[in-house]
Hints:
mainly alpha
Amino acid sequence: MISDELAIVGAPISYEELTVNILSGLNSDFKEVSASIRTCDTPVEYEVLFQKLLDHE
């Protein structure tokens, strides 16, 4: 997983930061999915985020 690889090289990133970075890079086709994920009360794990994005695609 990318967050693990970043931690190994000395640049750890939280699930929240990873999620924000991924969602910020999406185009307008993912607007609704992005909005629903951003409103979650708990951080979304990378695997869950990845699956939601694949399902939307």
